[in-house]
Amino acid sequence: MPPEGAAAHYRALESLYAAAPINRFFESRLELVAPGESRIHFAVDERHFHAAGAAHGTSYFKMLDDAAFYACNSLVTDRFLLTTQFSLLLTRPLGVGPVVAEGRWISGQRRVFVAEARLVTATGEEVARGTGTFMRSRIALASLPGYAGR
């Protein structure tokens, strides 16, 4: 039996995430666990490194932004959200291996949403965190390739 309600929306967002062309560069998997909460499992490798041998800041941004974004979009069933601002705090260098980006909605339910995210290594060490704002777009989720298996 196919999922219904919130579960159907979560599975459709997970499909949308998997279908995004940018994710061909990042081995990752979105998991929506509850309203306003997301986890994205990433595999960091040398392709993501800067010249000094650790993950480049673009990788941190990608992981944190996605986790915060999907935490918010889990609460919106009709429209795609857009990132309007994101602040990063990078606290440790990130090397090769698995990392989880955990996103959590903080506030907002109409037009603008606020969420935070953190990156956690396989050993449980937090290496970065970020906070972002996201707003409703005019783009219908149902119109996007990947959403609901389209």
Topology (SSEs and partners):
Blueprint: H1 5-19, E1 27-34, E2 37-44, H2 57-73, E3 79-90, E4 97-107, E5 112-121, E6 126-140
Antiparallel strand pairs: 1-2, 2-4, 3-6, 4-5, 5-6
InterPro entries: HotDog_dom_sf, Thioestr_dom
GO molecular function: thiolester hydrolase activity
Number of helices: 2
Largest sheet: spatial strand order: 1-2-4-5-6-3
Mean pLDDT across the residues is 94
Main sheet: strands, sense, barrel: 6 strands, antiparallel
Number of strands: 6
What is the domain tally?
Answer: 1
Structural class: alpha+beta
Residue windows where pLDDT falls under 50 for at least 5 positions: none
CATH architecture: Roll
**Proportion in helices:** 10-25%
Report Rg. Answer: 15 Å
- Work out the strand percent: 35-45%
Reported by name, the CATH topology is Thiol Ester Dehydrase, Chain A
The CATH H-level superfamily is: Hotdog Thioesterase
Strand-and-helix sequence, N→C?
Answer: HEEHEEEE
Q: What is the global morphology?
A: globular
According to CATH, what is the class? Alpha Beta
